[in-house]
Amino acid sequence: MLHKKWILLGSFFAMVLFSVNAIPSVETYIQSVKNNQLHDDREHVETRVDIRPVFASANKSTLLETITKEAENRKVAPINAKVDSVWKAIPGYNGLEVDIEETLKLAEHQLTPNQINYVMKEIEPKIQLDDLAPNPVYKGNSKKPMVSFMINVAWGNEFLPSMLETLRKENVHATFFFDGSWLKKNTEMAKRILSEGHEVSNHAYSHKDMRTISRSKAVEEISKTEDLLKQLGVKNSLFAPPSGYFNQETIQVASEFKLQTVLWTFDTIDWKNPGAGRILERLSTNVEPGTLILMHPTVSSRDALPGMISLIKKKGLVLGTVSDLLSSKRITGQGQISK
Questions:
Q1: Where are any strands of DSSP class E within the chain?
Q2: Residue 212 pLDDT > 50
Q3: CB of 148 closer than 8 Å to CB of 321
Q4: Measured between alpha carbons, how far is 62 from 69 in angstroms, rounded to an integer?
Q5: Which of 166, 238, 255, 301 fits as disulfide partner to 270, beta carbons 3.0 to 4.6 Å?
């Protein structure tokens, strides 16, 4: 009897053992679940990565198409420098075009939802002032809403301090053309003018009529003043012939010093002491974009200067140095030359 019990018990354990071996282990099952879950997650991640570029690409493509199309409407062609039959050398003026890459970046970041902010960049003309044959300049480009004061200094300091005060008060920078003999005697005043942010340039050395002197003398007149300017730390690029007298050789000699010969569009004729009222009356009907205004440190120009600045600003024009005016760079919204 006892023997039969052991046989039955052994048979029972044998059946249990067979059943356990026939069913996957819990560990195997758990690992299988993990493997399946990992497989599902991997597919989900791959789908997410694959889908995103599709939508991004579609949005980017649409934006790019819109921006590129609008860029054609917003394009402003640059203006080449040229030699005019009347005004001689006329500076060029930069054009504008949409910076498609930067505009697209801003649009993708949606800094302004449902609105594209177009980023513009300047395009330089193919022909610049320096590319032209040596010619004098009488005015800037008529598309550039800027005017410049060119103040020729060859004698006297009496009215310079008050003129400088007005310019400082109005935040205006002018270009002072120094006669070399004056500059040699008035270095401290020249340094003051320079320190206040004004441009200083070459007005020959001894106020000679450049039409009547020899080539060697013209070289001397320009070079002596250039040397004095260099001693001030100035890298000059302009030359204004005394009394506006010059010939082609004068321009050629200046060009050999890498100087642009500059004259004027509007003459205050202040040396005749016309009075501030008369200067303002004439200027009001003659000033326009690109005007170069000639004056000297005289009582008439000193008294007229505040009114001249006010008149020019009321016409929507910006005041800058002669170099600013002759540059092809555009004016920014703050009235400054673009950098």
A1: 82-84, 88-90, 95-98, 120-123, 146-153, 175-178, 199-202, 238-239, 260-261, 266-267, 292-295, 318-319
A2: yes
A3: yes
A4: 11
A5: 301
